[in-house]
Amino acid sequence: MNILLTGATGFVGSHVLEELLDQGHKVSIITRSSSDLHRIQNRLDELEKVFNLNETDVESIFESQQVDVIIHTATSYGHNQRLSQQLNANVHYPIELLELGAKYQAEAFINTDTFFGKDEHHSYAYLDSYSKSKKFMDTMARSYAACHGIKYVNMRLEHVYGPRDQEHKFISFVMRSLLQETSLRLTPGEQRRDFIYVKDVAKAYLAVIDNLKDISGIAEFEVGRGFSVSVREFVELAYELTGSRTVLEFGSLSYRESEIMESYANHKNLQALGWKAETELSYGISSIIEIMDKGGLA
Questions:
Q1: Where does the NAD-dependent epimerase/dehydratase domain lie (predicted)?
Q2: Which conformational region is residue 271 in: left (phi greater than 0), alpha (psi within -120 to 50 degrees), or beta?
Q3: Does domain 2-158+196-223 have CATH number 3.40.50.720?
């Protein structure tokens, strides 16, 4: 299948790219001149095309080749960006891709979303503009797809972790602190998350692609293990696996305003496609430790 992938240089996107290539799909990616290609450097020669948005317009991508499925993993959290830039990245850009997908007869647009956007978490103040922009895009995309003959699939990811995550993210920060044996200030850690290993997430996208013919016009899949673990349990397991002597200062930080105290996936419809989360926390954490010990990104 001919796949157009955005966000391939990012954390989730790079793992989705690997899985697509390993399964024999023809993949083209969209980048910018500022994109850091280090995560996918060893797979570049396997790509069909690399489109640089600073050198070409979006429609010419669809004019130059057949696109069967668009997978959108690119996103903006709004760090060091104006709100208008974030809205362009999280709303205008994916909607344009969806429109062009419909115009050039792509079968489906697969979006990447967050557990922040669940209805029960509507008051969560952290990354407020990010959550609201993702929610607005999802709402508009559903309406558009329903009227324009293209399938729209929303992948709502729980707390993804694994190799090659960004250094400023919570788990990367925790792992680095444990390995460097510096003191680690934390909340009480009672908030519970559905920690899902990134390679299991990537396989969820493949399960959707493999079953597109059986998926209705508008669909959503929550991607997680289906149960939650407290942040404290996660950190203490990582502490044990690293053999760290870091001082864990649980309770030295307050919870964020309107903190989400529990989230986990209802993944029954994803399991019905033959997918399951296979990675236990101990293995996933150990894989991060191994890479960081070698000087790589968590």
A1: 3-215
A2: alpha
A3: yes
Torsion angle in degrees (nearest 10) through CA of 116, 118, 123, 124: -10
Catalytic residue from among 93, 124, 130, 239: 130
Tens of pLDDT, residue by residue over 104-116, are: 999 999 999 999 8
Q: Examine the residue annotation and report whether 130 is marked as an active-site residue of this protein.
A: yes
Class of domain 161-193+227-265+279-293: alpha beta
Name residue 70's amino acid. Answer: I
Q: How many residues does the chain have?
A: 298
- At which residue do the structure tokens 């390679």 appear? 199
Distances (CA, A) of 168 to 27, 133, 144, 172, 294: 29, 22, 35, 7, 19
The answer to whether the pTM exceeds 0.70 is: yes
Residues 34-57 have a mean pLDDT of: 95
